[in-house]
Amino acid sequence: MAGTSENAVADPRMDNEHWANVLVQALPYFKTWVGKTVVVKYGGNAMLNEELKTAVMKDIVLLSTIGIHVVLVHGGGPEINHMLDRIGKESKFVDGLRYTDAETMEIVGMVLSGKLNKDIVGILLQEGGRAVGLSGVDSGLLRAKKINRDGQDYGFVGEVTEVHPEILHSLLTQGFIPVVSTVALGETGDNHLYNINADTAAAKIAVALKAEKFVQLTNVPGVLRDVSDPKSLLQRIHVSDIESLTAQGVISGGMIPKIECCRLARSGGVPRTHIIDGRVPHSLLIEMFSDRGIGTMIY
C-alpha cells in the first residue's frame, strides 16, 4: 500500500508477509504483460450481477493503467431478451442462433451498441479508466455476410468476413480501452446491419490484433469433466484433445462454440486462450498475475 489510514482495517486473513508474497508473485507477470494486447470477451450471462460487473471493470482498468492493451468485446443476450419481452416480442432461436428479423435487429442494435455498451463505458470511466465505446460498424471494424446453413434462414444473423483493426490500434496506442459491441455492417454493396456472435467476433478481433491472450469471461468455471463437480475442472486442454473430449461429451452444449472460438484464436496465432468464470471476483487478475491461474486454458 502507498500509505495507511487510521480508519483502515487490516484483513485478518492476510498478514504483511502474505501480502508481500502476493505482490512478489505478481511482479514478474506485470513485466510480462506490459505492452501486450489482451482481448476479453465478456459474456451476457456473466454480466447480470452489478457488483461483479464493477469488479471486472476494476480489473480491466488496472490492466490498462499498468500498460496492458485491453480490448473488451461484449455480448448481451439476456438484455436483448429483456427488451424484447418489454415490447411483447417473442425471442426465437433456430439451431442455437437468435432469429433476427428487421425489428429484432433494431432492438439488438439499440441494446448492444446503445444502452449496454455505454453502461460498460460509464463504469470504466467511473473506475478511473479511459474507455471508448464503439460497434463493429464504426470505422468498418467488422464486415459480415448473412449466415446461410443448408438453406435455413436466420434473418439478419451474420458471420464476420473481415476485421479492420486500425481504429483499435489507434485507440490502444493513445491509452484508451476500446469497448466493442458486435453489430457489423454487410460486405461491400450490402448495407444491412447484422447480429454477430460475440465469442466468434472477439476471437477474430484477437487474431487481427495479434493479441497475446484471448479470454472468455463466462458464467461457468471452465470445462468440467463432470458438470456436477466443480473440482473436476480441466485446467489445460491441448487443441489435439478437443475432438476426443467432445466425443466423450465432456465438451458439450454451450461449451462447444466457446472451445471452437479458442481454437479459432489459437489457429490464428494467439498464443494463450482461456475460458474463465466471470462470477468469481477478480478472476481476470487471478488469471493474469498468479501462478495458480483459473478456468481452462486451451493451448
Question: How would you characterize the overall build of this protein?
Answer:
The chain is of the alpha/beta class and 299 residues long. Helix content is 38%, strand content 24%. The protein is built from 9 helices and 14 strands. The strands form 3 sheets. The protein has an 8-stranded mixed beta sheet with strand order 5-8-2-1-11-13-14-12, sandwiched between helices. The protein has a 4-stranded mixed barrel with strand order 6-7-10-9. β1, α2 and β2 form a beta-alpha-beta unit. α3 packs across α4 and α6 packs parallel to α8. The N terminus is likely disordered.
> What is the alpha-carbon Rg in Å?
20 Å
| Helix-strand makeup class | alpha/beta
Q: What is the count of β-strands?
A: 14
Biggest pleated sheet: 8 strands, mixed
Global morphology: globular
Instruction: Work out the helicity level.
Output: 25-40%
Instruction: Return the string of H and E elements.
Output: HEHEHEEHEEEHEEEHEEHHEHE
Q: Overall pLDDT, averaged?
A: 89
Strand content: 15-25%
Q: Could you name the ranges where pLDDT drops below 50 across 5 or more consecutive residues?
A: 1-9
DSSP helical segment count: 9
Query: How far is the first residue's CA from the last residue's CA?
Result: 36 Å
Question: How is the largest sheet built, in terms of strand order?
Answer: 5-8-2-1-11-13-14-12
Task: Describe the secondary-structure layout.
Blueprint: H1 16-33, E1 37-42, H2 50-65, E2 69-74, H3 77-86, E3 93-94, E4 97-98, H4 102-126, E5 131-135, E6 142-149, E7 152-163, H5 166-173, E8 177-181, E9 183-186, E10 193-196, H6 198-208, E11 213-218, E12 236-237, H7 242-247, H8 255-267, E13 272-277, H9 283-289, E14 296-298
Parallel strand pairs: 1-2, 1-11, 2-8, 5-8, 6-9, 7-10, 11-13, 12-14
Antiparallel strand pairs: 3-4, 6-7, 9-10, 13-14
